[in-house]
User: Which sequence fits this backbone?
C-alpha cells in the first residue's frame, strides 16, 4: 500500500507489538491517516492507540460507523482537500440507503 485508499477495500493488518502499530501510523507520509480502525479486547491497548496516534477518525472494534452516519463531516487532519467538511446536503435522504 503506497497511497490512501478510497473505496470498498479495508486492509487489515494484525499486530502483536503495539510499538510497531504506532510506528507504522506515524511513519505514514502525513503521519495522520484519514481513518484508523483499532480492534482490541484489551482496553489498555485501545487507550494507548487513542493517546499516541492522530487520525481523521478513529473507530474502536468497528468499521462501519464512518460510513453509517451521513451527518459526519468527511475529513482528515491537516491541509489536504479531504480535510474540509462536506457541504450540507440539500437533498432528502431516503430510508433505502
Assistant:
Amino acid at each position: 500500500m503506497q497511497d490512501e485508499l478510497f473505496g470498498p477495500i479495508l486492509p487489515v493488518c494484525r499486530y502483536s507489538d503495539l510499538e510497531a502499530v504506532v510506528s507504522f501510523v506515524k511513519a505514514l507520509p502525513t503521519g495522520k491517516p484519514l481513518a484508523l480502525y483499532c480492534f482490541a479486547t484489551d482496553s489498555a491497548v485501545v487507550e494507548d492507540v487513542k493517546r499516541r496516534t492522530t487520525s481523521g477518525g478513529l473507530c474502536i472494534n468497528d468499521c462501519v460507523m464512518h460510513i453509517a452516519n451521513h451527518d459526519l463531516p468527511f475529513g482528515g487532519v491537516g491541509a489536504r482537500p479531504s480535510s474540509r467538511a462536506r457541504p450540507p446536503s440539500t437533498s432528502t435522504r431516503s430510508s433505502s440507503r
